[in-house]
Amino acid sequence: MQIVKKLNVPAPFLYDKIIDSVLFDIRKQTGKSVTRKQLNNYEYVKEFSKTSRAKIKIEKHIENEAYHFRTSTTRNDFLVKYDIRPLDDKSCEVVYEEEMKSFGVMQKMNDVVVGLLVGFLKKRQFKKMLEMIETSY
């Protein structure tokens, strides 16, 4: 899935919103406070429920330009990319991409069915989130 959207906010503003959320999640999951400079290749375990957890690895972090992370479980591997390009001082374009690899035939079939049903809703929800960021500026 890929979403490309122009936003009427400066690139550093959007970047800050994304990274502030990342730093909050790391602190909530690990109890550790990390700096932005420590994010490249940073890994931690995120617990979604008592029986569900995943390893998160930040694969690319470039100030005001890019944030990519990988979520790995025993069932699948999920790569998310945020690439931000300034258009001028007051606007930017964000390219959001998701790639998923599933392990096992049944998991692959399940993910295809769920992906078709949920994909549309996910895109709509993500666009709403971007609009909320834009209105908060």
From TrEMBL:
Pfam families, per the entry: DUF3284
Protein name as it appears in the record: DUF3284 domain-containing protein
